[in-house]
Amino acid sequence: MAEIMKNLTEYHDLTLLLEEAAYNGNKRQIRWPGYQFFGYFCSYWPEELLLAVGLEPLRILPPGTNSTPALLPTYCCSLARNSLHSAIKKDLDDLKGVGFAHTCDTMQCLESIWSTEYQQKVLSLVPPVHLKAPGAKDYYKEEMKSLLHHLSEITGKNPASVELDQALELTNHIRKLTKELDQLRAYLPSQLTADLLRAGQVMPREKYARVLGNALPILEELGEKQSTKPLILVSGAVLETNSLFEMIENLGGRVAADDTCTGYRHYAEPAEPQLLKDPLEFIIHRYMEMPPCPCRHLQLNERIDYLEGLADKRKVAGAVLVIRKFCEPHAWDSVPIAKRLKDKGIKTLVLELEGSAVGGQERTRLQAFLESLMGNS
Amino acid sequence: MTEKRYRKLNSTKQLEKIMAKYYALSRYHRFWGKPTNRHLAWVTSGAPVELLRSFGIHPVYPENYGAICGSRKVSTQLCQVAENAGYSQDLCSYARSHIGSILRPDLAPMKGLPKPDLLITCSNICGTVLKWYEALARIFDVPLLIIDTPYLTSDMTNHAQDYVHKQLQDMVPTLEKITGRAYNQNKMKEAISSSKETISLWTDIRGLCKNTPSPLNAPDLFIHMAPIVVLRGTKQAVNYYKLLKAEVQQRVEQRQSAINGEKTRLVWDNIAIWYNLYPFFKMFSERNACFVADTYSGGWAMELEQGEPLESLARTYTEIFLNRSAEFRAQNMIDLMEEYNADGFVMHSNRSCKPYSLVQGIIRRKVMAKTGVPGLLIEADMADQRVFAEEPTRNRIQAFLETVEAI
After folding, report:
1. Is A300 on the interface with B (CB under 8 A)?
2. Residue B81: its chain A contacts at CB < 8 A?
3. Measured between beta carbons, which residues in chain A are less than 8 angstroms from residue B351?
4. CB within 8 Å: B361 and A135
5. Distance, CA of B177 to CA of B192 (rounded, Å)
6. Does the pLDDT at position B1 exceed 50?
7. Cα angle vertex B390, ends B285, B94, to 5°?
8. Predicted structure pTM score
9. What is residue A94's DSSP assignment?
């Protein structure tokens, strides 16, 4: 009986995570009454600081419609357009504020529009673009301090006494759990792993850590012990849904390595994590050394080397480089990454998507791509 | 015979001469660069070139080259070359034209730009220039120097200024190593002094357009801004703008207008539509509308800050208008509208330049609310002709001018 009850709890935990992923944070007021959510857009937004002042981080993942708000031209990405549309519809009014970590030109403009047009509290963090530049660390620290100060004002906490250590403990624990999940992904349905990772960006973090911790052993048990599916690396920006992962799975592939903003890159730790006494320095070190997105510069080929290493480690047969329509940073990077992977003998597909959902056209391309991989194996 | 509506500046001959000389010098750099120990750098338009000049570096501007490709109507073909190599059609058309010119110099003006010894990119104008120059660094395998100027959501902060200053300080030994030349503060001061004089002259020239009728129209500004971009920090630029200022001053004294019968005064926002420069502005001038000011050529009119040279450069180049919020830029437009007594404004929603264009909707709304004058938004591209639809644009311009004229 105790065993059955234990399993029910574990399945309950898994179901909760999948529900959260399906809602993408949209039912937060009903599901998590009493929590104060603060919205953000980018993985460079330091969740630790929000948690430290008593706010819950919520990644803004708007519904995947193709909105065209009047204040943005059609030639910018659907993430920006749909997010602005959500704000116009007042779907985000309950948030205690919205945070922009400076990334691409589009999000820079969205920040400007948001802070000009809406009464909502908008906070900005401008991380260094060149993370190895002289003075970058000192500059970053001042930016973080300033952000912490502004966040403290929202909840009335004294910045000197905010619980950074506790917040760090929680985020580090989540990163450890998601790392375990990521290592299981070759044996789990691709869309399941994608959902479980995304859930951790839209629900209260303490709850996420607890239920994911509970769900991991059962996931391990449920996972296929051996998979003969061709393993795929997926790299790209924000994906609001698991649509692409599901299609890869349905067409016979398995995503074994994930470098998307809403996937494992969001949680990835530096190759050489350092234990630093000053919590702020620890946080900065993590954001400066984590696998970079195309909007940051470490060394010239840092990101390409990282992806090549990831492909090697996960023994992938093919790579899908996702470019959301009008997403320039990923479009730029797709050229040298595709070249490097192809030179290594890894078949690579550059797939342009309007939003995060895949349709008939993408299916045809993915099918041909996966068939070519299966033919090879 | 159709009436000539456009008055050409005599200074244009001198402009063509100095630009031809600059590009000839650049093209033959391979002959004179090594013997004189002068390195050639490809540089972004917002980089603090004064520092490079103090090291004897010859700067070449791929963005200016992109504009040349656009004006010569070869951009589309060059963009297609880049697209065939995997670069998305949604990327900046200057960048695509330039990469196309590297891959197919036979199709490119001047057979492409001379190869660089180093690359210098400054993030103050957009995110594209980082990715573009990374791509160039992979192609040419030469040093890439990055100046990271944090985007300013409001005013400049001390830590942002210190950060840029620190990077410039660090660039000095790097440039010493690359060029084999010692940092020479006097040369730096000379370059800054020339830049200041050039900026002051350019500001005066633009200011003369506050007169009615305006002595210059937007195409004049776009064409004659070339030296302040590529020859910034040199005596040649100073001499050229002295000549231009004298001619524009004379026009003002003689009440000569840039276009015949100026009736409507407009302000332009964004980069020019290079492949259609004169025909496009003719749609306005034939209805007696003159562009008396613009935000784009004004980007090079920002005054250099006082103080220690590197500190001054750090502050000036971080505070440029493209690195500022919509709020700041809206106020900039409002000031232009008021100072130049404008009746309306036209914004080029430029598919190639997102930081310039994506906030135009909100700026337009603010400027219209504050000044009470109409603003038109036209979608096109600065260099890639494929996205320009002439007839719908003409219709919109006509409707807009009818509105302005009726006010």
Report:
1. yes
2. none
3. 73, 75
4. no
5. 22
6. no
7. 95
8. 0.96
9. T
